[in-house]
Amino acid sequence: MPVAERPPLPREHGAWGILLVPFATAIGVAGRWNWPVTLLLVSVLAFYVARTSWLKRQWRWVAGLLTLSVAAALPLVVAWKMWWLPVFAVVALPVAVRPTGRSTGGQLAGAVGLTLTAPAAWYVATGRLDGMAAGLWGANAAYFAGGVLYVRMHLEAARRLPGARTVNVAYHAVLTGFVLALGIAGVISWGVAAAFAPAVVRALIGSWRLGPELRLKRLGWTEVAHSVVFSGLLAWALRT
Known about the structure:
There is one protein chain. The chain is mainly α. 76% of the residues lie in helices and 0% in strands. It has helices at 13-30, 35-55, 59-78, 85-96, 104-114, 117-126, 131-158, 164-184, 190-195, 197-208, 216-239. Helix 1 packs antiparallel against helix 7 and helix 6 (117-126) runs antiparallel to helix 7. It starts with 12 loop residues before the first helix and ends with a helix. The mean pLDDT is 91.
């Protein structure tokens, strides 16, 4: 099989946001950018593109990109003693080697796996694997899982398939109740709770105005804008 001149890039454009927005959020909360963070970003991007090469059986690109990913991550483990980084790779590997597919479960699992960039970035930026790392992962996983269900609702409405609206509304209702309960219990600040508000409002309005017409590009850019707003609000709340 001939080797492509450049590696095949992932075509799931929303997945780029799920990968990078949590990373940026964690760095925003940490308030620092250093050489370890740069090396981690190179390693993450190389690993992510290698996944697409793997799925397309472009073996030379797989070997080259994985070599780059390991080479960027190796100093973090050996020189900076960040021993937990291989654990992140092991946890992400089962999601990485399987096609995302069109099933709801597969896409939700992909979102949870991609948002591992949040605790990984926090760990590398600060040297700590603590409650903040877990909180960043949980918040981003909860937000982007909702985004997956919201987009699926629009896609299935365009194909006149029932059920997605109910799942989307139910998920965001449960998410709202859970976030409010954490706020009342003092587990999270009201600023963190408020970071979810635009997404919840978007999900409810979107389900009410749902129709068979699908403007995919507009939907994609709207989701990017919402994820940036969420990231900014969450970072601001966790830094204050």
